Amino acid sequence: MENLNKRQLEFVRLLLEEKEYRSIQYFAQKLEVSDKTLQEDLKTIRGELKLYGAGILAKTGKGILADEGIRHNMDLLNHLHAGNQPRKWNSSERRNNILKNLLLHSGTATSVQKLSDSYYVGKASIVNDLKYVEEWIAPYHLSLVKNKKGTQIAGREKDIREAITAVIHLDEVTLQNLLEIFQPEEIAFVEALLEDLKLDTSDIYYKNLLTHILICIQRVRSGRKVRTAQRETVFSAKAARQYQRAENISAKIKERYGINIGEDETFYIYQYISSLGTVDETPGWVGESDSKSDEVAAVLTEYMTDILDMEVRNEDMLLQGLMMHIRPLLNRLEYNIKIANPLLEEMQMSYPQMVGICQIVCGMICERYGLKEISLDEIANIATYYQTLMVKQTSLVNVLVVCHSGYGTSQLLSARLQQEFPNFNILDVIPSRKLSSFDLKQADLVISTVPVDVAAVPYLVVSSFLTNRDISAIRNNVYLLEQRVKINYGLLESLLPGGHITFGNWNGARERGRKICEAYLLPQCLAVVWKGRKDKTEVFLTIDRDNKMLRLDLLPGKAEEQKELFRELYRLSLEEVNLRTLIQCRSQEEVQKYLRQGVCKK
Predict the structure, then answer these.
(1) Among 107, 327, 524, 588, whose Cα sits 20 to 30 Å from the Cα of 450?
(2) pTM (2 decimals)?
(3) Domain annotation for the chain: domains and CATH numbers
(4) DSSP per-residue string spanning 371-400
């Protein structure tokens, strides 16, 4: 059996699992190879099995089956199960592993045949995997080179390292996925290096720096160094305390591994350290005073609080934290340092509107100050400050909880509401049959687990167990309660005349946005800000609800109307009922009427 490759051994194991005849196509599908490949494998396997007095039975129209000689030959079975069992990869795992290895061993060519043998799948599957790799690395300015030597990834060392970091961050950075690439003693060594920085090991910046230094050591030991720094830039940085820390790290790497990583690599580490969000004495924006970052933070906050109708008085601690966040953020933008935010998906699920409006405002800030684009990972971090501010400023809300019986799960719902919303004053928990006798003048909001007939106050129907979707809907409605005397869409309505309405053109809207606009996605709404004129803003809004679509092309607005326009878009994105109402409109006049009236007033 020593002459069989991994795929052929796996084929024999699959045969042993079957108690009845199976077709070649059945096994080919499991092994992700062609029928022709398995037919050739079958010839080789039969030749090996003869040495053990065993074989494979075949019946026309039925398929193949392992004979009893295989099942009862202990010597043969021991050979089959000797050593480690080959890992079974699903297609996604296989592609990511191929991607990771091609990046880690860039400059070393492999072949489709080698990869096919390693993962015991057909060449066609590997070719498709390499297409995936080629598309994945393209945003990092890397290419997949295929020639007589084989296949390998080519590009700048800095871009390769950025891609390696991204591969590690395909899942949240944990010790386990670092151990898949680096040795335990290497990780422990770098962790000891970082103790001087006094970072919280759960901090995302710590994980990014840890990953960066591990990659640096691995690449330099392989003879691949970064060469990007300008001499005058390095010289000016040497006086900084953070550069001295970077030099200390470089010296300890040399002491441990006997390699001199060089000035450029040291400067690269310095860039990461100066871009951390929690190291003391974090320097300001590169080449500028801290006043630049303070100004960016102040203007960002002015936009966000105006759009969200929030006050910033008596919030000095929160704003100071934001300013301390913006300073290293500007360094990261300057140095093209990307961070992976493990909370991004959770933020997008829990606070999609806040992340969306923050993305829009960050785009405007970048244009105003000539900054590079801020990633969604960074934006989600910024959004947490304003979501915290909003929660702190929410007034007391009087809530009536209505359930089918008023007992059991209703008490659980009440407890969950108080846990998630500290500003809720639960007036009572009552069965639905008693709702008509309750004085609703006391209530700001009714939350029910069953449909109820309530017109006097806003109400929501939720699950007894309060899902994440329920929590998000409640948050939106609480914000709208605060805004109820102000809710209208007058600016949207005024910008609609002269424009037009298109139905069912979602893909067209996306394509247009890709070509001429800066596009931002709010839940249910695609708001696109056209940067074509300095003193004007053009927006078209596409609403997609329940497989029904509506696109509104708006007239150019004045620059000073931007905040009000985004305020209205933000409110609209919160209101499920209003979005559904607008989707039902079939004329421009009908849309304008609803917008003018505030759609469905609370």
Answers:
(1) 524
(2) 0.66
(3) 6-81 (1.10.10.10), 91-155 (1.10.10.10), 164-274 (1.10.1790.10), 290-393 (1.10.1790.10), 397-483 (3.40.50.2300), 490-596 (no CATH)
(4) PPPPPHHHHHHHHHHHHHHHHHHPPPEEEE
